[in-house]
Design a protein that fits this description.
It is a single chain. This protein has about 700 residues and is an alpha+beta fold. The protein folds into four domains: about 100 residues, Alpha-Beta Plaits (2-Layer Sandwich); about 130 residues, Up-down Bundle (subunit c (vma5p) of the yeast v-atpase, domain 2), CATH 1.20.1460; about 90 residues, Alpha-Beta Plaits (2-Layer Sandwich); about 300 residues, no CATH class. The strands form four sheets. Strands 2, 3, 4, 9, 10 and 11 form a six-stranded antiparallel β-sheet that branches. Helix 1 packs across helix 8 and helix 4 runs antiparallel to helix 7. It is extended and about 125 Å long. About 30% of the residues are buried.
Length: about 700
């Protein structure tokens, strides 16, 4: 359980074997190939130009992904529950090559799907545009003459709309008012007086075709001699002519537009139906997508190689335990030069963890924080136990823990996830185990559901008693427990720092910077224990020398060591004094860190209390069957919410305790993780023949 030692490898092989070697390395998935750029090129060695090919592969891959998304969208085939966690299907090299031979046929399907998508988009545009035209012409549906009709030999026909609602009576009244006002204005301009009694309103036949809200569509017939006056009056009433008048009665155009919409809808549905029929080709599309991903990765890798006239050079890192196997496989199949060496002191070495099934699930927590450098130690073995332990303390409900275990076990057994998905399922399985443990220790099983059901439904006094203590009744005990566990956690972090410094040859610094703190903390412990447990005989070295007295002088000695050790490596008396003072002042940081562990009490207490309140609400109303019908949905709803919020809170805060209070004590980070060249496929993987 550690960070694996690495070997730097260099491969020199014939240019004609480049693609085959890259293909084999991809299937092995054990080599982290070094990145190359233009600065690495020489007169004899040049990078292989792959940008054009990569761009084309990216476009093709995007088309395939789009085709898959379309088929999945319109497919009626239901995917298995939690299929997103499922592992990849394993294929032998022969099976992979056989399926790859059908990729041209699958690519034709992609083109067909894209054509169908374009047709759907085109017909959707047509339907939308036609619907807008239909909406504009529908108000004229009752007009039984063409909108472009202008009248007969002696009459004029006017068709248009107003931005106000009129019926025939209100329109005629407004028309008369506007006509009179217009004539009065004309008379004033001519300098004559207009006689209202002699004013004659033109004869006008009005047909209101449509009126609603702030719109009125109408048609008018007038004598041609009155046309100019009528039009002038209508304009005063905000009259506008149709922008696209029909040559036929509007119902003819309406019929055509409706037919066009129906035809577009039929074409869209027919195209969607064809997409649904491609659902049985999804497996082939998934394979083609993975194949293109692998080709992209291969061309990207080829772009990292340095080529001469007939050879190429590849270098990178491989775990020491895999180096011999990689060399054996390559040299047995190709004529090449394989050289391996220990990394140079100034080389950046990628880090690769190797841990057992209990520790490996928390590796991503460290990777999210920062990759280790070559001077770091693997923090995962120490961190794993406390990660699960603290998560369980914060969630602290046996019912929730059992649900976590059952849920993760279901995914692990039924979906067989891989990679990080598998690690996450194992991580939350162990968190569920710890949660179940602490739930029974605290007597919390879906809050106090046993006692609530017993009291609310059976008037009994049955309850699930805690194995240790009930935090809601004795929160101070939980707070002291949290501080004690936090203190141990901090000491382990300091112990890891001591070990790391000694491993890296900094023995003197380890004693000056770390061991002095252990002395001081030992003294503090000897002082606090008698205060908590009482001055009993076991806490005395003798009748005259109590343990607290020994602890006081031990703490003072530790403080002195901290002060003297803080000046180690500093220049001058002032530098040593400032360094020593700063080291002693660091006790405030440890005190702050210790207080952070109070979240173990806070979250653990809240989870149980909220669960108990939910149970009380569920048993508060009605009786008999009515109470049961209320209790079940209340129980399910509140506990689902409580589980979700509490689990999220536990996850966030347990990560914080590792990042801030634990890893910061000894872990520098800032390195790079081992990223092997492998097939980053989603649905299929190749099984390497032994």
């Amino acid at each position: 359980m550690a960070i694996l030692p690495m070997k730097h490898i260099e491969i020199i092989a014939m240019q004609k074997d480049a693609k085959k070697i890259v293909d084999l390395l991809q299937r092995l998935g054990t080599v982290d190939v070094t990145e190359r750029d233009a600065e690495d090129e020489t007169e004899e060695l040049n990078l292989f130009p792959t940008r054009t090919s990569l761009n084309q592969l990216e476009k093709t891959s995007a088309s395939i992904q789009h085709a898959i998304a379309l088929v999945e969208e319109f497919s009626t085939v239901k995917r298995p529950f939690l299929s997103g966690f499922a592992g990849r299907e394993e294929l032998t090299a022969e099976e992979f090559n056989a399926r790859a031979a059908k990729n041209d046929e699958t690519m034709k399907i992609v083109y067909d799907i894209e054509a169908l998508d374009r047709k759907i988009a085109s017909e959707t545009t047509v339907r939308t545009h036609t619907q807008h035209q239909l909406d504009a012409i529908l108000p004229w549906e009752k007009l039984d003459i063409p909108m472009q009709y202008t009248g007969s030999q002696k009459t004029a026909c006017i068709t248009g709309q107003f931005s106000e609602a009129y019926d025939e009576k209100s329109f005629y009244a407004e028309f008369c008012n506007q006509y009179s006002a217009m004539k009065e204005s004309e008379a004033v301009l001519k300098g004559i007086s207009a006689d209202k009694e002699e004013l004659k309103i033109p004869d006008i036949y009005t047909e209101i075709v449509y009126t609603a809200g702030d719109q009125t569509c109408a048609s008018f017939i007038v004598h041609k001699k009155d046309y100019e006056d009528v039009m002038a009056t209508l304009r005063r009433m905000s009259f506008t002519a149709p922008s696209d008048p029909t040559k036929h009665p509007p119902e003819v155009r309406i019929g055509r537009l409706k037919n066009r919409i129906k035809e577009a809808s039929r074409n869209i549905e027919a195209s969607r139906e064809q997409l649904r029929r491609y659902a049985d080709k999804l497996d082939d599309l998934y394979f083609l997508s993975d194949y293109m991903i692998m080709r992209q990765d291969k061309y990207d890798m080829l772009g990292r190689l340095l080529f001469s006239g007939k050879t190429f050079i590849l270098d990178g890192f491989v775990a020491e335990e895999d180096c011999a196997h990689v060399e054996e496989v390559l040299t047995s199949k190709f004529e090449l030069v394989f050289e391996s060496r220990d990394p140079l002191p100034d080389e950046e070495i990628p880090a690769k963890f190797k841990n057992n099934a209990f520790v490996a699930p928390v590796e991503d927590i460290v990777e999210s924080y920062s990759a280790p450098t070559k001077g770091d130690i693997d923090p995962n073995p120490v961190m794993a136990f406390f990660y699960y332990f603290f998560f369980g303390m914060m969630l602290s409900d046996a019912g929730y823990g059992i649900l976590l275990m059952l849920g993760t076990l279901f995914v692990l057994k039924k979906r067989k996830p891989e990679g990080n998905n598998k690690k996450n399922m194992l991580k939350f399985f162990y968190c569920g185990m710890a949660t179940t443990f602490w739930g029974f220790m605290y007597g919390s099983f879906f809050g106090d559901v046993v006692g609530s059901v017993s009291k609310g439904f059976f008037s009994g006094k049955v309850s699930l008693d805690p194995i240790w203590f009930d935090p809601s009744k004795d929160p101070m005990k939980l707070l002291i427990l949290s501080f004690c566990l936090g203190f141990i956690h901090i000491l382990l972090g300091l112990g890891a720092k001591f070990y790391r410094m000694c491993k890296n040859g900094e023995v003197t610094g380890a004693f000056c910077e770390v061991f002095s703190w252990f002395i001081a903390f030992a003294g503090v412990v000897m002082i606090i224990f008698p205060m908590i447990l009482g001055e009993f005989t076991p806490w005395k070295i003798s009748d005259s020398v109590p343990l607290a007295e020994i602890g006081k002088w031990t703490a003072i000695a530790g403080g002195a060591c901290i002060f003297l050790g803080g000046g180690y490596g500093k220049k001058g008396i002032i530098g040593k004094f400032i360094g020593g003072f700063g080291a002693v002042y660091g006790v405030t940081g440890y005190f702050s860190d210790l207080l952070s562990y109070s979240r173990l009490m806070a979250l653990g207490l809240v989870t149980g209390i909220v669960g108990s309140v939910a149970n009380s609400i569920g048993t508060l109303f009605f009786s008999g069957v009515g109470k049961l019908l209320v209790f079940i949905p209340v129980f399910l709803f509140f506990h689902a919410i409580n589980l979700g919020i509490s689990a999220l809170g536990a996850y966030v805060h347990v990560n914080r305790l590792q990042y801030v209070e634990f890893l910061s004590k000894f872990y520098d980070g800032g390195g790079t993780m081992f990223t092997p060249f492998t097939g980053n496929t989603k649905h299929f993987k190749i099984k390497e023949d032994n």
